[in-house]
Amino acid sequence: MLPLLARLLLLTCLVSPLYSVEKVRNRGFRKDAEYEKYGSCLQGPAGNPGREGNPGSNGIPGTPGIPGRDGPKGEKGECVSEIFAEPWRPNYKQCAWNALNYGIDLGKIADCTFTKLRSDSALRVVFSGSLRLKCKTACCQRWYFTFNGAECSGPLTIESIIYLDQGSPELNSTINIHRTSTVEGLCEGLQAGLVDVAIWVGTCADYPRGDASTGWNSVSRVIIEELPK
Fold first, then answer.
1. How confident is the model over 127-172, as pLDDT tens digits?
2. Nearest to residue 129, comparing CAs of 183, 92, 93?
3. Sign of the four-CA dihedral 30, 35, 38, 44
4. How far is Cα 70 from Cα 220, in angstroms, rounded to an integer?
5. In DSSP terms, which residues pair with 127 in a beta bridge?
6. What's the confidence (pLDDT) of residue 84?
């Protein structure tokens, strides 16, 4: 019995120091971990969040990128010539005569030379003056314009006529009346340059001529004006 108690006491003495050493080691391990984490002092309460910092300055510009690939070839375009029209300038002329008193029945009465600036324009012509026709039987006279010796064909001639009937014994058909009349129209298709504009008197188709008179005791005039088409 004694030897058994002695063995238990011996065992207790051997185990007790080992347990104490293990506790000391464990305490030292926890202290070393806290020391490594917080240094020599324990962690205090968390502080207030700091203010936002100022924006940083612009960085250095980047290097240019690689040029892109060429696009597909486009379709062939149409060539369009742009025409810039010059501003239109007025171009007109007037020729006037005092008391022509021209008593011819056939032929040219007066002319007026005009400078036409453009070929794609039209000429407006006006004759204003006194006209008269008398005859004992039915008669007709025609007053008309020519351009460089030819009547207008663009589109038609420029003319005026006076027709006098035979009359009757009660009404003297030879009555002598002079009236201011007008011959007027537009002529197209004339080329640019000098144009000789003339007023003529002649006969009407299928009618005899009478006794014509132009410009008696008054002013006669020819007005020529170039107009855009």
1. 999 999 988 888 999 999 999 999 999 999 999 999 988 655 655 6
2. 183
3. positive
4. 76
5. 183, 222
6. 58
Burial class (CB in 10 A: 0-12, 13-18, 19+), 159: middle
The string of pLDDT tens digits covering residues 152-163 is: 999 999 999 999
- Give how far Cα 162 sits from Cα of 14, 37, 70, 109, 211, Å: 165, 132, 80, 16, 11
pTM across the whole model:
0.62
| Both structure tokens of 218 | 């008054």
119 contact partners, CB below 8 Å, separation of at least 6: 190, 191, 192
What the block records as the tokens of 29 is 């391990």
Residues 6+ apart with CB under 8 A from 221: 94, 95, 96, 97, 126, 127, 128, 129
DSSP 207: S
- 42-100 per-position pLDDT tens digit: 677 888 887 887 887 777 887 887 888 888 888 887 766 656 567 889 999 999 999 99
